């Protein structure tokens, strides 16, 4: 993977957007370093698209500041370094892929045909021939949207939900393309609510909930958080917790629901079961689990667990 640098491709300070009285993006301090694939994750309506629109200059912030490559987003130099795929990619359905790309190239003042061929090749559309966009699969349309975003060879790509509507093959192709672009040194911000997919490519994550950035973390930090745990289903959660804390003071235990407890940092699962049984607690089920990334994100977006 390409090396991450220490300069910021995107940095926002207290970025806020209100629609009427509703605050949909709240004081966001988003930081994306050059060379990262930044997975921007949140449920539908969390504020992802609104944030991305502000980053691209499509929507104006109510408050706060945005810097792209350490310059204001309005700077024309910044505009040229930015490629964007947001919502409907602005495709002309009665035209072919090549005609669409040529049209956008013309609007951008790009006259050399090589650039057009290059983005078609990179997105696997060079052989789409005379087929009109209206006959394209969803995957082809998304790839064409990415091709348009790639015109002008931008250093930063902002892709809003590019996986939406793609079949597994389309997802695999897009993933491959994003990884190749990253290898070339591009910084990529990609939003999605499909967590499993993002976790296959992202080097960094930002989790947005109700307009607030509740966490930013690296892939390594995330993997560390997805540690093994021991899960117990017992008849008396409260008494079990007290007994666990007394007998295994080094572990961290948390209530999952009315019957289940999660224990981190435990090595001797059998010993813990034995201790509970000796104390007349019925253990219905127990075993070691590994939290996957999806589970972690869901818990963060649902407001976290209750630690004891
Ligand atoms: N132009 C607008 N006027 C009023 N409210 C809006 C407007 N655009 C978005 N919103 C509201 O802002 C909130 C955040 O929407 P946004 O589209 O940014 O979320 P999202 O995380 O991208 O979700 P989705 O994946 O569903 O697009 C939602 O409650 C939405 O209804």
Automatic annotation (TrEMBL):
Keywords: ATP-binding, Nucleotide-binding, Transport
Pfam families listed in its UniProt record: ABC_tran
Record-annotated membrane-spanning stretches: none
InterPro entries on file: AAA+_ATPase, ABC_transporter-like_ATP-bd, P-loop_NTPase
Gene Ontology molecular-function annotations: ATP binding; ATP hydrolysis activity
Domain of life: Bacteria
Keyword Nucleotide-binding: yes
Entries under SUPFAM superfamilies matching the protein: P-loop containing nucleoside triphosphate hydrolases
Chain ranges of the ABC transporter domain: 10-235
Keyword ATP-binding recorded: yes
PANTHER family: ABC TRANSPORTER, ATP-BINDING PROTEIN
Family: Belongs to the ABC transporter superfamily.
Full protein name: ATP-binding cassette domain-containing protein
